[in-house]
Amino acid sequence: MLDVSHPYFDNSLSWLSYTHRLLLEARDENVPLAERLRSLGRFAKEKDDFVNEKIPLLSAMSLASKDTLEKLNLFPETLLEHIRETLANQCDEFNYVLKQEILPALRENGVHLYFQQPLPAIQQDFLRSYFLKEVFRYIQPLFLTGRKPFKSFFSDPSLFQLIVRLKKENAMENTGTDSDEFMFASVNIPLEHTTRFVELPEQGAGKHIAFLEDVIRCNLDLVFAGFKVYESFCLRFERPSAPELDDELIPLYASRVARQLEKQNFVVPQIVYCEKGMPDQMKHFLSERFDIPMDGWIAPGDYLHYSSFTTFPALGKRLEYPLQKQFSLVEPTTNIFEALQGGDQLLHLPYHSHWPIVKFFNDAAIDPFVKEIHVSLYKISGQSFLVNSLISAARNGKKVLAFVELNPKLSDLESPVWAKKMKDAGIKVVFSTPGLKVHAKIALIKRKVKKGWERYAYLGTGGFYRLTANESVDHVLLTSQTEICNELELLFAYLATGQEAKKYKYLPFNTLHVSQFNMYRRLIEMIDREIQHSKMGKKAVIVIKINQLQDKQIIDKLYHAARVGVSVTLVVNNCLCLIPDLPTISENITALRIVDRYHENSRIFYFLNDGLEDIFLSSGDWTHRNFHRRIDVAFPVTGAAFKKQLKQVIGNYINDNQKAVRLDVYQNNVPVVAGSTEQKIRAQEANYKLVERQELRPAFTSR
Q: Could you tell me which residues are beta bridge partners of residue 544?
C-alpha cells in the first residue's frame, strides 16, 4: 500500500523496475535473437551495479538510529528483505529466459553455445592451440597452501578466478588411493586480455561458441603438470566502495548517520560470488583462508559475469539488428573550426557519426592558431581517442587543462598510468575531490587569429567514453556562440581553482545552468512559470527526458504543476521517485520508459513558456547528488532549426507505441500498445529517419 502522505517511490525499487524492463526486452520475440542475449547482459550489469551500490548503503542505513530513520521515512531492513526477494525472482526469470528460451532458440538457428556441457573431443586440438597461443601467457596459477595469508589476494574486483581441487599424481601412485589430502589452487581468468566467448571451428553448418573458463578447464593439465585435477569452480570477489551518504542525504542527516556508523565500526561487507554447485568442502576451505562467513556466499547461476553477454560475438544478419548508416555533418578534409564559423552543429548520436567530435579535438591538437584547450574528462580510459589528442596537443605547444574524474573501476590500476602520461606531456591535470566532482561533458578551444581570439565549445549529454562505441543515444552541441563560450571559460577558470562551489556562488551564469550555482533555482523558476501560465488559462507543458528523477523538492513542484493543469510528461530511463497517476496528486503526469536497441542516455528539458518554447540539453539527472554534489551543465538550444529537430525527437518519445512502457503507481512496466488504426511509432527508428531526412552524406555503419 502506497503512503499518500509521503508520495515518493523508493529509488532502489525503481531501479529494480528498470532491470525488470531489461528482462522484458530479452523475452520479446520481436527483438533479434542476438540482441535478446545482449539484453540479458545489460540486465546482469545493472543488477551487479545495483547490488554493489544499494546493498551496502541500505546495510549501513539499517544501523542508523530509529529516530533518524523515522525522520527520513526509511525502513532499510524491510526494504532489504523486499529487495532480496525481488532480486531472487528476477534472477530466476533470467535463468529461465536464458536456458528455456534463448539458448534453445540459438540452437534452432544454428548457434551452439556450450553451456554446462563438455566441449567436443573433435575440438581438442583447436582448444589446446587456442589456449597456448591466446591465454597461457596471461595465466597466474597460485597454490592456496601453507600459512601465508591470502586475505588481500582477491581484493581487486577485476579478478575472476577458477578455484581448482587437485592432487599430486605421484602421491596417488605411492598410496594407490585417493585418500590423501587434496590441495586447492586458483587460476585467473584473464578477461582483460582475452575475449569471454571463444568461437570454435565450424562443424558442418552452424556456429559453435564456448565460455573462456571452459576452455581453461580443458587445459588445466598444462597449468598443473604432475597433478590430477578433480574439479573447478569460478569465484569472484567484490568489495563495494563505502556508501556515499552525502550523495544520498541532506548534509544534516548524512553527517548524523556517518557518526552513528563510525561508533558501530561499520565495514562495507564483501560480496562473494561462486558458481552454482561449488561443494561445501571447497567453500569451507576458502571461508577459513579468506575470512568469509559461510552465509556470505552467493551462487547466482551456472556461470558468473553474465554481463559479458553484452559483448557476445556477432551472429549474422538474421539474428542481429540491420546495419544503420551514420551521417556526417563534416567532410573528413574540412577544418572543424572553419566549419563551425559557418554555423553551430547539433549531433544526434549514434545516428550521426562521432567523426566531428574526433575532428574537434584532433584539429585542435594540430591547428597552429589553437593556443588553449580546456576539457572535463569523466571516467574515461587511457585508450580514449581524447587522451591521445590532448597529449598530442600539449606536445605541440598548446596549453591544456584537463579536469579529471577517475573511473573507479580503473583508478587503482590504469588511471594513474594515463594520468601520468598526460602530466609528463605538459597537461595540467586537476583531479576531482569529494567536494568538487565534475559530471559535465564540456570542452573549450581558444584560437588566436589576426582579428583576435576565437572560442569554440563542446557540450554533450553523455561521456566521451560512450561516444565512439555507438551504443548510446546522446546529443552534442558544437558551437561558437559568444554567451556560451564566455560562461564556459568562466566555469573552467573556477574549476582550475579546485575549490568548492560555495566559495564562488557569485559567478554570473545566465545562459548556462550550472549545478551548485544556478541550475536548481532556474529549473524551479521554469516550472513555476508553467504553473503561472496554467493558472492564467494558458496552455502549459513540461516534458522531461532523463535517466533519474529523485529530488523531492523538484518532484513536489511537478506535483503542484500537475494539480493546476500543467501537462507533465516524463520519459525516465532508470530511477523515478515521482509516483504518476495518484488521485488528486499526479493524475496529469504521464511517466514513460523506453528500452530499445541503443541505451537511452540523453537528457532533454522542454518548457512551453507560452509558445516561446525553452529547450535545454543536459549532462545531469535531477537528483540530490547532481544538483548539490557535482558540477553539471544544462545548455539552451536556441536555433529555430535545432529546436524543431528536438521537438520532433521529443514527440517521437512521447508517441512511441512499440518500445515504450508506461509506469503505473507501483512502477510496473505496462506496454504502450498501438491501436488498430494508429500509426506504429518506434522512437529510435523515427529519430534515425529524422536524421536521415536531414543529411545526405552517409559516413559509416554501426552494428
A: 570, 605
Q: HEC string of 182-242?
A: CEEEEEECCCCCCCCEEEECCCCCCEEEEEHHHHHHCCHHHHCCCEEEEEEEEEEEECCCC
Collect all residues with Cβ–Cβ distance below 8 Å to 263 and sequence separation of at least 6.
Answer: none
- DSSP label at 122? G
pLDDT band at 177 (very low <50, low <70, confident <90, very high): very low
Q: What is the pLDDT of residue 179?
A: 44
Q: Tell me the mean pLDDT in the region 273-292.
A: 86
Q: Tell me the C-alpha distance between 207 and 216, whole Å.
A: 20
Q: Rounded to whole angstroms, how far apart are CA atoms 578 and 7? A: 7
How many other CB atoms are there within 10 angstroms of residue 673's CB atom? 10
Q: Is 616 helix (H, G, I), strand (E, B) or coil?
A: strand
- Please compute Rg for the chain using Cα positions: 27
Q: How many helices (H) and strands (E) does the chain have?
A: 23, 30
The rounded distance, in Å, linking the Cα atoms of 540 and 62 is 43
Asked whether the CA dihedral 514, 598, 570, 82 is positive or negative, the reply is: negative
Cell of 287: 571461508
**pLDDT higher than threshold 90 for residue 144:** no
Give the separation between CA 233 and CA 275, rounded to whole angstroms.
6
Q: For residue 335, give Cα distances in angstroms to 132, 183, 397, 480.
A: 47, 64, 19, 14
d(CA 143, CA 153): 12
C-alpha cell at 123: 575440438
Q: Among candidates 497, 582, 529, which has minimal Cα distance to 2?
A: 582
Q: Is 123 helix (H, G, I), strand (E, B) or coil?
A: helix
How many CA atoms are closer than 13 Å to the CA of 3, on its beta-carbon side?
Answer: 7
Q: Can you tell me the distance from the alpha carbon of 137 to that of 127, in angstroms, rounded to the nearest whole number?
A: 15
| Phi-psi domain of 61 (left: phi exceeds 0; alpha: psi -120 through 50; beta: other) | alpha
Beta strands, E only, 501-627:
513-514, 541-546, 567-572, 589-594, 599-600, 603-607, 614-618
Decide: helix, strand or coil at residue 617.
strand
For residue 594, which of 676, 650, 541 has the smallest C-alpha distance?
Answer: 650
**CA distance linking residue 142 with residue 185, whole number of Å:** 5
For CA atoms 547, 552, 553, 555, the dihedral sign is positive
Q: H-helix or E-strand containing 669?
A: strand 669-671
Q: Check: CB of residue 358 under 8 Å from CB of residue 385.
A: yes
Nearby residues of 313 by Cβ (< 8 Å), 6 or more positions away: 195, 197, 199, 207, 209
pLDDT of 402-454, one tens digit each?
998 865 554 445 556 777 888 999 999 888 877 788 999 999 999 999 999 99
Amino acid at 249: L
In sequence order, the 6+-apart residues with CB closer than 8 A to the CB of 18 are: 46, 573, 574, 575, 593
Nearest to 551 by CA among 605, 619, 622, 604: 622
Summarised one tens digit per residue, pLDDT across range 114-136 is 999 999 999 999 999 999 999 99
- Cis geometry, peptide bond prior to residue 350 (ω within 30 degrees of 0): yes
Using CA atoms, how far apart are residues 231 and 509, in angstroms rounded to an integer?
64
Cα 240 to Cα 4: distance, rounded to the nearest angstrom? 34
